Amino acid sequence: MHSSAKGGQYTNMDVDCDGANNSAGKCSNDPSGQGVTAFKDDVKKFGIPDLDANLHPYIVFGNEEHSPKFKPQDYGMEPLSVMAVVCNGKLVSRLS
Predict the structure, then answer these.
(1) Which pLDDT tens digit goes with each residue over 41-64?
(2) Contact present, 30 and 78 (Cβ < 8 Å)
(3) Cα 9 from chain centroid (whole Å)
(4) What is the Cα gyration radius of the chain?
(5) DSSP line for the chain
(6) What is the number of alpha carbons within 13 Å of residue 62 lying toward its C-beta?
(7) 88 CB-near residues (< 8 Å, 6+ apart)
(8) What pTM was computed for the model?
(9) Cα 68 to the chain's mean position, in Å?
(10) Among residues 60, 47, 49, 70, which one has the least CA distance to residue 17?
(11) Per-residue confidence of the chain (96 residues) as pLDDT tens digits?
C-alpha cells in the first residue's frame, strides 16, 4: 500500500507513545502521549490491558480527522495489522 497524497507524503504516520506505560523508556519525553489507545478493547483478547509502546512498537497510520483524509480500512488494512516501513528502498527495522 502506498499513499500518493501530497506528492507521496503520508497524512499521518507516526510512532506513537499512547497506551500502557506511556511515560517510561523511549516515551518518557513525549508530551503528546495519552494513557490509553483506541485498541485497548481489541488487545484484551491477547491477554494484555493495552498496547505498551515500550514493548510493542506501533505506528498510527491513517487520518480521518484532517485533510486529506485517508482510511486504511478502505484499502483492506485492518486495525492491528503488521506493517513494513520502507524508506528509500530499505526496510526500516526499528523506529525511534
Answers:
(1) 989 998 999 888 778 777 777 777
(2) no
(3) 16
(4) 14
(5) ----HHHH--SSEEE---STTTTSGGGTT-TT--SS-TTHHHHGGGT-SS--TTTS--EEE-BSSSSSPB-GGGGTPPTT----EEETTEEE----
(6) 14
(7) none
(8) 0.61
(9) 18
(10) 60
(11) 555 555 655 544 555 778 877 777 777 777 777 788 888 898 999 899 988 877 877 777 777 777 777 788 888 888 888 877 777 788 876 544
Q: All 3 cell numbers of residue 55?
A: 514493548
Dihedral angle, C-alpha 40, 44, 49, 50, nearest 10 ° = -40
Residue with cell 503520508: 10
